[in-house]
Amino acid sequence: MIPYDFEASVGYWITITAHRYQQRLNEVLAPYDITFRQFQVLGWLVYEGELSQNELAERLMIEPPTLAGILDRIQRDGWIERRPCPSDRRRRIVCLTAAAQPIWRQVVDCLRAIRSEAAGDMTDEEVATLISLLRRIQKNLGNQAATVLPAATMEIQA
């Protein structure tokens, strides 16, 4: 076997940190009966408005059949609606309902708590540097699609 120094790998640290962040977020969201993936769907819809199922799958970087199961659960809870696209009957458009507003408020509180927990004893300057470095890594890897979302103060439009 060829040795590999995982400890010195930027990818290793990004990956395990992202996984732990998602695990912790799932733990904090569990009492509200919502998962990390379900929160991601709501988040994209809050910030971008209606999206097709394919557009959502692309943003979540998952396969459309995987997304369908997530959407089934969110729709069952009354947080979204799926409608046929007026211009292409093969496409389904996903939109938020007014019933999503209370859960979104709880999710935002959880996100703020996890952000604070993750930053721990880091200064505001260190956090800004970390974000800047991660953006550079995305750019270096050719991810021009990385979206910077606005602050989470937007109300759900029903």
Short summary:
The protein is mainly alpha-helical. It has one domain: Orthogonal Bundle (Arc Repressor Mutant, subunit A), CATH 1.10.10.10. It has helices spanning 10-29, 36-48, 53-60, 64-76, 100-119, 124-140, and strands at 51-52, 80-84, 92-96.
Task: Please give a structural write-up.
With 158 residues, this protein is mainly alpha-helical. It has one domain: Winged helix-like DNA-binding domain superfamily/Winged helix DNA-binding domain (Arc Repressor Mutant, subunit A, Orthogonal Bundle), CATH 1.10.10. Helix content is 58%, strand content 8%. A 3-stranded antiparallel beta sheet has the order 1-3-2. A hairpin with a 7-residue loop joins strand 2 and strand 3. Helix 3 crosses helix 4. It is globular and about 50 Å long. The C terminus is likely disordered.
Structural topology:
Layout: H1 10-29, H2 36-48, E1 51-52, H3 53-60, H4 64-76, E2 80-84, E3 92-96, H5 100-119, H6 124-140
Antiparallel strand pairs: 1-3, 2-3
List keywords for this structure.
single chain; 158 residues; mainly alpha; Arc Repressor Mutant, subunit A; three-stranded antiparallel β-sheet; 3 strands; 58% helix; globular; disordered C terminus
